[in-house]
Amino acid sequence: MRTSMWSAALAACLTACGGGGGNAGSGSTPLTPPVSSNGNLDVYVGTWTSACASHAIDTAVIARAAGSSNALTIAVTTNYYANTACTGDIIATQVWSAATTATYVGTVASSIMPGSVSAYIDKVPAQLPQRTVTLTGTFVSRKIVDGQPNWCIDYAGGSVCVPDRIYAAEPASFDGLAIVDGELVEVKSNGVNYDTVERFTKR
Questions:
Q1: Residue range 193-197: mean pLDDT, rounded
Q2: Beta carbons of 111 and 122 less than 8 angstroms apart
Q3: N-terminal to C-terminal alpha carbon distance within the chain
Q4: What is the DSSP string of 88-130?
Q5: Do 27 and 37 touch, CB atoms closer than 8 A?
Q6: What angle do CA 59, 60, 61 make, to 5 degrees?
Q7: Spatial separation of the C-alpha atoms in residues 185 and 174, rounded to whole Å
Q8: Do residues 188 and 174 lie in contact, with contact meaning Cβ atoms separated by under 8 Å?
Q9: What is the pLDDT of residue 2?
Q10: What whole-number distance in Å separates Cα of residue 66 and Cα of residue 72?
Q11: pLDDT in tens, 10-48
Q12: pLDDT category of residue 158 using cuts at 50, 70 and 90
């Protein structure tokens, strides 16, 4: 659920530093039908963890939105490691000031790419609110880059930085959710079916 401008910038920079990759599954193994075919949002509630990608592991805490029967809040914390295998000590932790809101609008039978895996997709257009980002950790420093304060992770090969500013509200990188083989799958419609954005396992 790296649904931020920071994530895009970080992924690009880490690729240049020898990281890269993503959390999309291969789709080579057929997956069992999901349990969310009736729009049961409770199946998503809980704490979920992504696979390691670009030095980082996402932890998403999903809850029912207060005062709503058809919305979820998704709060993501990202832990960064010195190596691309995400082993050893956490060197930096990224936290956003406000959670994403995903609103259920319906369920569709479709397929998830790669692998053309048949699934029921709960359509949940998601919105990132106006927000700020904070990084903490032993490898984190604050620097001025082009006159703008930045949070920086100081890797051995150089620093990766993101502006410390107010980020405008914007659509998230996903617009659907599914539970497949016990995994939470974030997906994005491509007009024909759905592409995998990120996969999570429940803690």
A1: 96
A2: no
A3: 16
A4: S-EEEEEEESS-EEEE--EEEEEEEETTTEEEEEEE--EEEPS
A5: no
A6: 120
A7: 10
A8: yes
A9: 55
A10: 9
A11: 433 433 333 333 333 333 333 434 444 346 899 999 999
A12: confident
Residue type for position 145: V
**Contact residues for 184 (Cβ-Cβ < 8 A; gap 6+):** 44, 48, 60, 177, 178, 199, 200, 201, 202
Tokens of 29: 């193994």
**72 Cβ contact list (under 8 Å, min separation 6):** 41, 44, 45, 62, 63, 64, 65, 101, 102, 103, 104, 124
Most trustworthy range by pLDDT among 5-9, 19-23, 135-139: 135-139
Domain ranges of the chain: 5-202
Task: Give the residue from 121, 98, 111, 69 showing the smallest Cα distance to 172.
Answer: 98
d(CA 144, CA 129): 25
Tokens of 150: 């930045």
Indicate the SS3 state at residue 57: strand
Nearest Cα to Cα of residue 198 among 62, 18, 38, 13:
62
Nearest one of 30, 44, 77 to 184, comparing CA atoms: 44
Residue 54 is predicted with a pLDDT of 83
Write the DSSP string, 124-187.
--EEEPSB-EEEESTTEEEEEETTEEEEEEEETTEEEEEE-SPBPPEE-S--EEEEETTEEEEE
pLDDT at 157: 80
